[in-house]
Design goal:
There is one protein chain. The protein is an alpha/beta fold. It folds into two domains: about 5-125 and about 300-330, Medium-chain alcohol dehydrogenases, catalytic domain (Quinone Oxidoreductase, Chain A, domain 1, Alpha-Beta Complex); about 130-275, NAD(P)-binding Rossmann-like Domain (Rossmann fold, 3-Layer(aba) Sandwich). Helices cover about 25% and strands about 25% of the residues. The protein is built from nine helices and 15 strands. The strands form three sheets. Strands 3, 4, 5, 6, 7, 14 and 15 form a seven-stranded mixed beta sheet that branches. Strands 10-9-8-11-12-13 form a six-stranded parallel beta sheet, with helices on both faces. A two-stranded antiparallel ribbon has the order 1-2. Strand 11 (about 215-220), helix 6 (about 225-230) and strand 12 form a beta-alpha-beta unit.
Length: about 325
């Protein structure tokens, strides 16, 4: 069998993450003992939350220690099994990190019935990003027809799903992205009513012109000055679903919110949420997402890097905004 290529976290991170924070190793392919099975991974998910786990003492999730296999979700097929619940050939989604093969006793793995969809979609629109978009809009913000919804990181894995859910509800949807090319993609391909370039000199003014009736719901993925600008546009009783703060993950000192008083002035509901706390929403979310996929109502966008050895550079590039939609690494066949 092929060697088990592994990517390890080897250097503490201060500031931007680079390929130098990782090391590539060849380890033996694990062998299953009683009650275990081995998965040959096909795709690896690259996600901003992984950068947070590289921070010492982080409370978001279990922090990484130097020398650990880098954390991450994969999907692949069982190649050896001594577990009654998993058979050779089963598709399995794992959270066992950046490696070619995963050994599991089942506690960090989920058997996936592809149901006619490509395996990679179960790391994107049918995985945590898609369910995050559904939970944030349907459950946390409770969007309603006729409202204006702002979505930062508009062309990312979550934003590209959230826009279609908001449009299906009858909302006006304004995206926020970096650069004219991404803003054009957001409008022309993803279906935003408008998209504002946060890199533009007059970003706040452009955001105001794109939201003449204000903002009723903010699906916040970025934080920092972008979030401050959106706060200034919030209407009375607006809702903010705080999903991420990707602009902050590479900073040594976090950005302090400057318009926080507007949350009080406008009677705004601000709720941070982690999709892992909403497992009871998964079935309803997947049912709607699959139905809309079958009807062709969702825009599937993936940026795929070939080869696990290229995962560190692809991960670093993700924070420079080099991808559209879901960032993935193709590990194997």
């Amino acid at each position: 069998m092929h060697p088990n290529l592994q990517i390890r976290f080897v250097k503490p991170v201060t500031g931007p993450v680079t390929a130098e924070h990782f090391a590539i190793e060849n380890a033996p392919v694990p062998a299953a003992r009683e009650g275990e099975f081995v998965v040959r991974n096909a795709f690896l998910s690259l996600d901003p939350y992984q950068r947070r786990q590289m921070m010492p003492g982080v409370h978001y999730a279990q922090p990484l220690r130097v020398g650990d296999v880098m954390v991450g979700r994969t999907i692949g097929r069982v190649v050896e099994s001594r577990h009654s619940g998993f058979a050779v050939g089963d598709w399995v989604r794992c959270s066992l990190g950046w490696q070619s093969f995963s050994l599991s006793a089942g506690e960090h793995a989920e058997k996936i019935e592809l149901d006619g969809f490509a395996p990679s979609l179960y790391l994107g629109i049918l995985g945590s990003p898609g369910i995050t978009a559904w939970v944030g809009l349907r459950h946390v913000a409770k969007i309603r027809a006729g409202e204006t919804v702002a979505i930062s990181a508009a062309t990312g894995a979550v934003g590209s799903v959230a826009v279609r859910l908001a449009k299906s509800t009858g909302c006006r949807v304004v995206g926020i992205a970096g650069g004219p090319a991404k803003c054009a993609f957001a409008v022309e391909t993803l279906g935003y009513d408008a998209c504002v370039d946060y890199q533009a000199q007059d970003f706040s003014g452009l955001l105001g012109r794109a939201t003449p009736a204000g903002v009723d719901v903010d699906f916040e993925n970025v934080g920092g000055p972008v979030f401050d600008a959106v706060i200034a546009r919030l209407n009375q009783s607006a809702r903010v679903a705080l999903c991420g703060l990707v602009s902050q993950y590479n900073l040594s000192e976090p950005y302090g919110m400057r318009n926080i008083a507007e949350l009080l002035n406008q009677n705004v509901m601000l709720q941070g949420f982690r999709v892992g706390n909403y497992e009871y929403c998964r079935e309803a979310a997947l049912a709607e997402l699959k139905e809309r996929l079958r009807k062709g109502e969702m825009a599937v966008q993936e940026t795929i890097t070939d080869g696990l050895a290229n995962a560190p550079s692809a991960f670093a590039a993700m924070f420079a905004g080099s991808h559209l939609g879901k960032a993935l690494v193709r590990i194997g066949e």
